[in-house]
Input
Amino acid sequence: MPGEVFVSYSQPDRDCALELVAQVEAQGISCWVAPRDVSPSADWAAEIIDAISNAQVMVLVFSAQSNDSPQVRREVERAVHKRLRILPFRIEDVLPSKSLEYFLSAQHWLDAFPPPRESHYAKLCTHLRVTLSRGAPERPSSPDGTSGPARADAHERTPAPLQPALIHEIEAELSTYIGPVARVLVKRAVARATTAEELLAQLAADLDSHGEQQRFTERCRQLINRG
Output
């Protein structure tokens, strides 16, 4: 089930993350947190992308462990790309690494140290109520003109006429920009696209800069024309 708040954390901070979720949900604010809200036998990456796409705020439990976590960095990157508000909840007196500082430098931080954290949870809940009352930020439109998640009829459309080997090459090309999450995005785009160009447009939209979009599209066109 989608939550208003997506909670990102590193595994060593699991107890704090679950305590935070309990405090926030006690105030009537719904949360999505893994592994609690991952459906049985589900594609983990797909579930995370869906949850980020449907949330209004990401709360990042920030610590030395999350600072060094590739999974946390990928979640923050996707949240920034989706224009999701991010609220770092800093439980240790550490500064963000360079890879996270780029995404978090403009964010408002809440310090939650030293313990106990009860008063910090209360402050977080107040901040979330104010933030959620402002409504969700405008999200970028997908190439088919819709915004947010794919339309309900997405899987009923004709897939792009591309061979599996070529799709795999396109996925590999996309992964050089955004990592393993490319697998999920390509699978969804293939289900939605009706032409090869539409497929490339949908995938390019998941890249942050115009330069990356252009390079990715040109490279994939070369792969398609070669075939």
User: Anything to note?
Assistant: Confidence is low (pLDDT under 50) at residues 140-160. The longest helix spans residues 210-226. Residues 5-133 form a domain with the Rossmann fold fold (CATH 3.40.50.10140).
